[in-house]
Amino acid sequence: MLAVREVDAAGYRSLRHIRFPVAPLSVFVGGNGAGKTNLYRALTLLQAASVGTLTRELAAEGGMEAVLWAGTRRRHEPARVRLRAELADDETGQSFAYEVEIGLVPQDEHGTFGAAFAREPQIKRERLTVRAGARPVVVLDRDGPAGFVRDEDGRKCPIGPRLLATETALSALQDALRLPELQVVRQAMAAWRFYHAVRTDAGSALRRPCLAVTSPTLASDGSDLAAVLATLVHIRGDTADLDAAIDDAFPGARLVVPEPGRWASFGLVFPDHPRRVFEASELSDGTLRYLAHAGALLSYRLPPFVALNEPETSLHPDLMAPLARMIALASRRTQVWLVTHSERLADAIAEHGGAGPRVVLKRDGATWIEGLRLAGDFSDEDGE
Fold first, then answer.
1. DSSP letter for each residue of 239-302
2. Which end of the chain has the smaller Cβ count within 10 Å, N or C?
């Protein structure tokens, strides 16, 4: 499994230029406007590069004019967003560094390169570097419409003219046998899960039964929660962690997941009403959101990287400790990364998961992390 070891972002919203290490359990806390969500969003954009939706995601944010760093730039510095992630396999010792730059400036005398609309975000540079020993090897190097990839024999092959200016080579070059390193990185990043848009309102999919399909991992919008819970109950047959998490949050409560037919559903029985099953449609927003977090963090198969954006939303303060214990438990099986407003949640995760929170702040108008040095490490990590 490839774990995220480092993230580097520049030119994106409040991220002037920041590079920081990523731990097995990373917690970022800070006030409104500090830029926590931009750190989170940088990771979602890296995943978008792997699945071919990067320029669409940026266009949906308002286009390059909206997402570019709004502060001053050095003279002749191009107006670009640059994103980079380093992933590593602890078993093999291999590491993979993927970098992508996005901008709007035309690349040739005709006013553009490749096929793209005039104000559409365009991929300007891409690079994938693999290190298996002392010497790193560049296996993908793209500059505008030109570039090369190395095949399975190490030979340089031109990318070719068919790659659009709005396409990432990482997503478009799909020959897994000829380009195995691209396939490894693409699969690893595509498997990341981001949980920030889980709706709990009256029209939420969480409040309705879902198709009874074996679901080992919760969808990013939580829409298959009932199927995820049914998979744990009726296929895995082990709900010890799930039952403990529910009892931790709602003492004496019990999860009820009927044997699925075409549809999967769930409900809760509370000790005050032991003969009454409260269906998902009847649960409070906070209770339903907590159950969605349980589905994300305790599912049959966790993704290699789980990111949570303000998971405390709608939760009563008394649920911070149970949520923290659930996050700590999940971090034993996968890499967990989260941003939060709640110092209470951050402190509880530090107590139960051993990961002290990193404070996100503004420094000269740019997002920064307290204790982060320009070298890309934290000052409190000396001697570790």
1. -HHHHHHHHHHSTT-EEE-PPPSSEE--EEE-TTSTT--EEGGGS-HHHHHHHHHHHHHSSSS-
2. C
- Class at the top of the CATH hierarchy for domain 194-353: alpha beta
Helices and strands in the chain: count of H runs, count of E runs: 10, 19
Are residues 7 and 19 in contact, defined by beta-carbon separation less than 8 angstroms? yes
For residue 360, give the H/E element and its range: strand 358-363
Residue 207 neighbours by CB distance under 10 Å: 18
Rounded distance, CA 287 to CA 279, Å?
A: 12
Residue 265: name the closest of 219, 204, 224 by CA: 224
CB 270, CB 278: distance < 8 Å: yes
Q: How far apart are the first and last CA of the chain?
A: 24
Q: What is the pLDDT along the chain (384 residues), one digit of tens a residue?
A: 899 999 999 999 999 999 999 999 999 999 999 999 999 999 999 999 999 999 999 999 999 989 999 888 887 778 899 999 999 998 888 999 999 999 985 645 555 445 567 678 999 999 999 998 778 999 999 998 889 999 888 899 998 767 888 999 999 998 877 899 999 999 999 999 999 989 999 999 999 999 999 999 999 999 999 999 999 999 999 999 999 999 999 999 999 999 999 999 999 999 999 999 999 999 999 999 999 999 999 999 999 999 999 999 999 999 999 999 999 999 999 999 999 999 999 999 999 999 999 999 999 999 999 999 998 999 887 544
Q: Where are the domains of the chain?
A: 3-192+360-381, 194-353
Residue 148 to residues 38, 106, 180: CA-CA distances in angstroms? 31, 21, 15
Strands 278-279 and 267-269: antiparallel
Is residue 98 within 8 A of residue 85, CB to CB? The reply is yes
